[in-house]
């Protein structure tokens, strides 16, 4: 492992630009090697890799779904509070209380005045 505390700042800044590029270059190279290995395995079994990847077995397989996908399909909560003068300021009543509501209450105004 390289002791980067000894590397001059100018070189560190150059590395900051060069390292992500090198990582992507090596990932692309590794990806190509894996694809070649898979193609060789497919050929050894009498198949073409592209035909296997395009087959219905792969098309019907569930795709990798990000963990937050459930949240993206949920409808947003209905608006329960709206600023009377600035209609774009809304709140559903869920989560942390927005600053504009805290300011409204700090001015001594009732939250019921904001209810939709």
Verbal overview:
- The chain has helices at residues 9-44, 49-54, 56-59, 69-73, 99-106; strands spanning 81-82, 90-91.
- It has 116 residues and is mainly α.
- The chain folds into 2 domains: 7-62; 81-114.
- Strands 1-2 form a two-stranded antiparallel sheet.
- A hairpin with a 7-residue loop joins strand 1 and strand 2.
- The longest helix has 36 residues, at 9-44.
- It is flat, with a radius of gyration of 28 Å.
- 2% of the residues are buried.
Can you count the beta strands? 2
| Count of helical regions | 5
Q: N- to C-terminal separation?
A: 61 Å
Helix-strand pattern, N to C?
HHHHEEH
Keywords summarizing the entry:
116 residues, mainly alpha, two-stranded antiparallel ribbon, 5 helices
Quick summary:
The protein is mainly alpha-helical and 116 residues long. Helices cover 51% and strands 3% of the residues.
List the helices and strands and how they pair.
Layout: H1 9-44, H2 49-54, H3 56-59, H4 69-73, E1 81-82, E2 90-91, H5 99-106
Antiparallel strand pairs: 1-2
